[in-house]
Amino acid sequence: MSIIIKTYEEIQKIRIASRIAAKTLEFIKPYIVPGISTEKLNLICHNHIVNSQKAFPGCLNYHGFPKSICTSVNNTVCHGIPRENEILRSGDIINIDVTVIKNGFYGDTSKMFFVGKKTKEGKKLCKVAKDSLYLAIKMVRPGIRLQKIGKSIQDFIEKNKFSVVKEYCGHGIGKKFHEDPQILHYNAYDGGITLKEGMIFTIEPMVNFGKDTVELMEDGWTVKTKDNKLSAQYEHTLSVTKHGCEILTLREEERFN
Ligand code: MF3
Ligand code: CO
Ligand code: CO
What is the number of the ligand 1 atom nearest to the C-alpha of 221? Predict the structure, then answer.
């Protein structure tokens, strides 16, 4: 276990990659309508990242992942592979997870979108997932134990009668996509880690409408809920500052929250 403390110059580079990832989520929003395929969303994001931003999609070819973004619809928890024959319908919820490499550094962020009409269940689940991320972000500062953050995320989600996925976690990020430490979204021993200024990592809780059990599909990537109920996730890349943190992947719509 070795956590890299980033220099000022490294933070600036991760900030730039993170901004491009956040901008890509803003850019894709108007395209998320009933009738579009997840592959089309992948293509639009890919072209935006490569041609407009002169960056590279971190997911593409990552351990053989075949596409440039992850698209996780309804009962898909994470790592959904965009497909030509996966057509969005009104009432769907979809997570789009964008990772960008720029000048050798990574930025990673995801959010939920509603397709057409919002269902009551989808709205409630996405709000709890987003609020669980925000409450965790508010705790981030030098000196805090990671376990406290994980416990707070889990307590909040379970208080709302949903469950938190245990198999996947947030991660340090920088020159590599996934670095130490692991950021667990539930109450478990953290190896004694306390946060320090200059650490950069993601928090990305996955929240299930029903049971927390998940299942890996035959494609080796797509993770679904075992009970086929809805799942939602939000992710930000954060850098620990002297008195708190900076959200490197903050979007315009979040600025006044
Ligand atoms: N972006 C995901 C994360 O938040 C990881 C996706 S890996 C991929 O860590 F290969 F599926 F793209
Ligand atoms: Co991540
Ligand atoms: Co991600």
Answer: 11
